[in-house]
Give the backbone structure.
Amino acid sequence: MNEYIATLVDEFAQLGITHAVFSPGSRSTTMAMLFREHGAFETYMNIDERSAGFMALGIAKAHRKPVILVCTSGSAVAHYMPAVLEAQYSGVPLIILSADRPHTLKHVGAPQTVDQQKLFGTAVNYYEELAVPQQDHYYTYPRLVARKAYMKAMDVKRGPVHINVPLFEPLVPELDRKHFECGRLSFSVVSGTVQLSDVRAIYDLLKNKKILMLAGPSANPDNIKAILALSYMFNAPILGDPLSNMRSVCDERVITSYDAVLTQESYRDVLQPDCILQIGQMVVSKRVQQWVASMKDRTIISVSPTMDYTNPAGNTTLFVQTTPQGLVEALKIQIPELHSVDHNDCTDGNNYLSTWIDVDTVGRKQLDTVGQEQELFEGRTIHLLQDLLPQHSQIVVANSMSIRDMDYFWAGNRHDATIYGNRGVNGIDGTVSTALGIATNGVPTVLLTGDLTFFHDLNGLAVAKTHPLNLTIIVHNNDGGGIFEYLPQKGTPHFDYLFSTAQGLDYSGLATLYGIDFIRVTNNDELKNALQNYVGTAGVHVIEIPTSKERSRELHKLYTTIPTNKEDRL
């Protein structure tokens, strides 16, 4: 039952951790025996957990890398607190693995059982409870947890990390070395200042390869120039998430129709990279995420200034802790052959970049046919915005279907609008309030949202009565959760009640309630007029666009289906 713990132990060894300190106990038997059996760890048995904590602290200081602490369940883990506090405030990396009773023995009077969830509170850099993995991830998930623990312990501010490990009986593990090797993948971390040896290793992974760059959501517009510079260094196409703001630059190497393109297997095959260079968060596109997850034998390099694992597929092979600009500067300084990169040259020796550009041209041509649509449709609205929105504007895009429609229909190289969204936890909370906050910089601002997200934060409009804020809100009202039309829940029993969640609200009353402008349009000509009248003018304005969930799904399929006949593809 607990064989997956062997992969957790092995991954710590693969990450270069060499010391572990135990205190005796029954529930921690599985971990203690596996750490001893592995052979890569120098272990110490200290019967007093408080003393063990400080001993591990000393080892970590001396060796300048994380030390594993293992204890049994109950009050044992609480004795680590003084050492954990010292590690937090002095920046010493520790990884606490506290054994715990399984969930079935919680709150039923089982002995030596306390609530160990987040026991150390803010005294640790990171906390996670190791769940029982699904069958498909039985050996890979514990490795991912180990990587996250290591990375957060070794972050810019080093410190302790706590992983709580519920363990099931029998506690004595099968000591078969094959379990240590299961799910093992190449993974390494470059943290802190990027050294010469690090830069050369990164360059060797990238040179003369088919490199695909993923530019994910970013709150830092300074990344744009650096991402472009990396693209020119390695002749790499950039999949530009709308929230990366790469689409504001005029450069054909910024690819924008990728989600629609990747629906076709023929495209997926020809566009396979040798290496992926992921900048910051993962892109919004689920299809891209699934494609990346399928790449079992590719080099995947993640670049982020903080030690936050940013690839949900869990197949990153190298994590580089730096900013895009930091990586560019290190490469330029330490790799002489990059000094002569021509930013006007789009040639590519292996044709990989030009293939992506050609395919993107086909994809964007198809997506742009939405400009002919006469019905009110989310994609048509976005196409209109690109034509009618003043340059140097800003758009706040809600989650759920709004950001996905933006991903499809907001083209690159056409508009310099700055695009914002709350993709930290991808929720619908506070979207109206966020847009009002962004609008305080005085730049013409549009919020693009669905009706449920709008409804969820109607109270945010109250501040517009007391402060001179300017915002145009476009609400696509399909009376419910349109995104579920595209998810597996569609067609299941109780779908309308549980997922579609029609509210039947009449938003026209907002004009009286909040003293704002409100208009409900019935066709695209009225929408054009409303956008021209409202965007950039004083006050808060709401443009409601009635749509149908079912019809939007049909139109979405129509406009995002890329031609498959050979002459239209390449």
Remarks:
- The first strand starts at residue 19 and ends at 22.
- The chain has three domains: 4-183, 190-364, 373-560.
